[in-house]
């Protein structure tokens, strides 16, 4: 996708705040603005970055925000909407389904993987991608996944979220042609090693179409699937650059 | 299974050779005689232990024997038969199928897992168990396993052998009611870590009926499945002890 | 064990709840219904799944339930009985010993391994298996185990629970002919690495009849031993399928 | 991408050879035929699978073939072309650039990463994707990457191959909008841990558009990038399925 | 730098307190007095060591002091100044910039790395080095670092602090000629492994001028850079020993 | 040391309590009675075991007791004396120095290693060994250890306790002829890995006289040194068995 | 044991050779001369060090010498005697049993552990200790160890050598009062991790009298046991220093 | 150190060869030209890079060259001089001692660490630094290091090379005021883990002046020490840039 040179301006690419610097050039370069990683940032800092981005017309997403911090932030910036499962904050409405781009499905193995799957979900909504969810289809019930094949076999990209043995992406991989972004979760105990077992399993997948992101990295899994789906959509529309 | 007290004798339980000691009481105690672990033993030592066991009427199994050592041993003890895939030596004929006990199936994921699967196979033959093989049904081809369900759904116990992501036992686990003994193999590369990835995957299996043995431990997987199947068979016959 | 075809019905195999899906076909396929893994599920979800299973006549087991959550659940579903050592909830009476099937013994090394051993115990009671307990016979006191040999040498299967160096299954393995399901626990400190030391020790056991499950996986150890014992019992009775 | 139902036929999905089974349904399901993983397979097996695929009109790719095995295979099947850097065998001509689909760039950090980068290259040629190479632009020379930005900033997908500290994908990630498939290599020594250092670095990338595959998995990196690029191309052409 | 023999005295090199011993000879031997590592020491012990050092005319630095302990200590020893970001206590004024020695720059990748960067900062102030800070220039925004090149390209030594993939020191390394002391932080999650990912990345840096210290070891990074800068400064002044 | 046959009695070797079994034969077999490992045992259990041991005339030691549990226990069994640094409980007076046996020195590297060193200390007092302490002589101050050489060069055995890089035992090893029992502590951070760094360092010690025990295992280090010293003392007295 | 001041001389403590330095003061300080670690040293260097030690009247031991290097060395220094199992070279006759000191037993678990056990054996002979061997008494045969109890229950110290699960030292520990030096071996495969499994097992031993040395460190295990036994012997003789 | 702007030219910064690209701007930016990392490069490639560098008047250093490759290269480029211990190739004469800059000492622990120490040595000679060697002063002989203190206490920077427990840098750190670059080596066995034990030990050093580089990274240790020493030398001469 060619970078949109028309958007190139003289303005400085970085805005220096007291405690952080904001990459103002990112939308031009990478198609989407900066996402605020909430861990280790104060409510004030997060609200300030969000305001700056918002004032430039960007949609805003902040991840890894616990409930207490979310409450603090929404007092500073009431338009931020919190999703307590995904632990994300967003500014910007969901696109109506007809305007949403492409087709991404987020598949998760068990009930405990839900928070990570929902972080991917929120990320995809923020990107303007069309997204649907298929929950609790882990490999222990072998009929569960095929029963729902119709819901995901035509996707542009899949996000597959699983903890424990992390086998779900390998099994899904055998059913579809699109790229799969596998997200290991830290769900499990003992030799799970905080998600390392699922991570290694996914990296060693015998399915050729499985790429992997960090443990519990729902955002990154969603973002990558969203890039594939929205860029494919844009190219079908004869568009070279994301437009939102 | 009650231990067969009638077999208890006064003879000393251990036979001391120059370089090893043989546990002569094992068949009474554990149902099967000692198996010779070939790694780190000379051809002479292996042949000597085999002769002693044979002279006491035991069936003999030696594992982890490379071709060169097998050739040396068969010159010393010609009745030993070598299986070059399993890298095992045996003395004692295969039982005719009608006399073999129980029903064990060894399932393997890929072509490269064959040597480990065959070590399990040879072990089960040595135990007098009825055994069949289902090869190359890894999860990347989702239709391969269900196509062959009839071959293993009635087994007394399964041995499931897989490298790479080690997902096969979890998937098989959802189809059957019997215990599964999962054997991770060192097949793979990179983040496979010499089989650790498959091992961790199997230990974290969401299927309740999956137990695990060491990496590449085809013998142990086969032995455990053989215990389950032959003891169930013996109890159905009203027999308390293995008879071979 | 052949699957009980008479139980096959037209009903859909999966019941979709708001936050989870229940595998309704599992008893037919695997001999026992789904077990509820409590970690990461709300009290409401657990009670709802339990009610659905109960309404279909299944016995119910939920594991990894802390006291607070157990209290919440029992307000929603008073018939659930909590075991605070095992941290399990059950619905369904213990079978009278005469009706219980087979013979499983759960052996544990030290006082601190008790919670894991009790999770195995509760699981076996839920399966309708006959079960007895041998506590605190770790290898540091070499006479403790032989003193109690009569209690476990005739078992159909053993569950052996140990933390620290995890040597107990290897030592027990030399005394018996039946399969042993070894459960490493996270009891210990320092180079114990949260149970990894015991896990590795058990995987490397020189005893041929030792299979291993995940760290602290009392449920899985109990379930596997229960499968071996109840299926052997059923086959002796000329029964092909579990009946409870 | 909807699966091409018109290609659905009655023929059995699996062809059972003596030592392997071939997934004949894969092209319909996944868009591309099976790839032959050469490790642990004999020359005979590889040639046999290749012949079967070829006889069905599929393009053939085999990976992880050393020179000696390649020589054996080309005596059995002379039309197979060997690439000694990539250690791959292929049957099927390169598409003329005008017919090749999409636009993938393979970027590598150092001279020693070349074999892995070339495995990705060969995979992309086999898929019919348009591909170009940017070599030796590791982060130690900070001007090297920007000098060549024009060669990769418009790609549909990137494969970035790096050993040692594995920083290159993170740096590339800041310049582009497309998905990046990062391939860690085992190049390095000491605390490199056979590629684990680069793998962890890539998994923890602060760039949102970086997904990771296994160490030295040039094939998988190429395959995923090829899926993104060819499917985007096909959708622009109003085509739903790959056509080659 | 020759040790200052004139400072050699007859006094005993070690002062024995109740709960600790103080190395009174360290300034002569190593150029700077002992630094108090606060972890695991009581407020009383810290205050006592600080008083003893102060009474001998040394400047005092204590690291790893949480707020509660800092409050306790400042009641015992009010002249100690606390920096709540760096979690350090100091006694002794900052040198005026003109008197400060050499030129060290502390560069950090993200907002969350700030506490570690500030520990380095406080350490350098305590050493009497001239120090400036460059924050939030991680590799995800590739223009951020070059924009600020003028601020650090003439430094005598750099401290580069980064978590996650730890790529920043490698990138900085390509721009400068001076030694870089890389400090990995435990910022991140999942496969970050508490900073191990960043640590391995830095150890494997392809940049020749990057040395590494322990995870979160802001003190040590600052101390080493301070040694390089102040000793170079002293040698330019014709001074052989530090003078403060 | 020959076992004291005169102490052999007919009494059963194991006392079965509700929640634990006590090894009553241990003093005869091993020279010292059981030590109570407090982790995971309730105050009631610990008090009950202590009472039983006391009623048989044994000296009592319990380790890993936090302050809250210690308070509970001393209400049940007031004669137990708590050491809050070592976190141990003891019953039985310290022997007067003249009656204490042998000569053990416990050397520790830093202030933070004190709790582990004190656990060794309490263990040695309980064994009736003569023991002295040398604190805070870590290798960073190279003159500290030689200054105190006279205090430990004539010991029968040394316990050397160190965290961080764990170098102290290697350095001490070069000065003495007696066996050294090295105890790594979990003191440190980052790449310390909870004491693994010190543990590995000690296992790889180039000093021939260094044996290692588990991380933070002050009890075990003290116990082993106590065995060496008291048995040497007893043999000098012409005594074959411990007498206390 | 007080150091023998009478042996103190004016001679320099270190002899500087071209490629190594010899610690000439070690016998005075540590009771025994330097041992030559053969790995990474040339035959010439080893022969030169051995000659220098011999010319000063010391007994000589060199470890980790393969057969080829041993042949080279014995051409340079024919009095060196090679033990091909232990891979050690020695100069100096075995003491007649009556003159040998103390009583050490080396116990090994399996045939493959023999080389490490023999390295301990050779070391003890070199030290002038009385030593006997108990081979192949691993825990899989539970009667083997008690059968031979009389051979080791009166030892001054034990060396226990085991690979695989490393359980033997824990079991032995329950039978004896003396210190045990446990030597893990790299015998095993898969999750054995080159001896790490046995090492961790031994470090976590529930037996209080078990100290551990490095994997395959037969020399160190033997040396420590030899120190305990010979120093106890010397003290019984009223001797303070070793005399050989 | 300010970069030498007078050397800035218009010439392209990168020279693209067939199989590698050369960073021609590095001397201006970083003070020294590129060093050729020999691993994974052919003799032809190395000779070609060396020729290009030489033709531009640069001094040449290539590391990690085995003897066979060195012979090949010296046929192509006879002026390259090989050091078989360091496994390095150089072009350019050693500077006479009087012209060499600064003062670096390379200290190594044992004979087996020599190759890594010599790689550091060769690197320092190539940089034009004054360098001396102190070999075989490991901590097991505590008098060896102090005996040679005069040789290194006045250095501008030290390189300390050690395998096994890696304690030497910590001990040296207590004697000197200058920065220490610690190089762990893979010398050792078992729990040494290929140098990881020494690496962790050095990272956790309690000495404040110890920075660490990768395992066996003699080049990097030498390079960093050389930067410190030569830049200090240049600044004393009133020179801002390296001149060679």
Automatic annotation (TrEMBL), chains A, B, C, D, E, F, G, H:
<dbReference type="InterPro" id="IPR039476">
    <property type="entry name" value="P2CMN_synthase_LarB"/>
</dbReference>
<dbReference type="GO" id="GO:0016787">
    <property type="term" value="F:hydrolase activity"/>
</dbReference>
<dbReference type="InterPro" id="IPR000031">
    <property type="entry name" value="PurE_dom"/>
</dbReference>
<feature type="domain" description="PurE">
    <location>
        <begin position="102"/>
        <end position="234"/>
    </location>
</feature>
<protein>
    <submittedName>
        <fullName>AIR carboxylase</fullName>
    </submittedName>
</protein>
<dbReference type="GO" id="GO:0006189">
    <property type="term" value="P:'de novo' IMP biosynthetic process"/>
</dbReference>
<dbReference type="Pfam" id="PF00731">
    <property type="entry name" value="AIRC"/>
</dbReference>
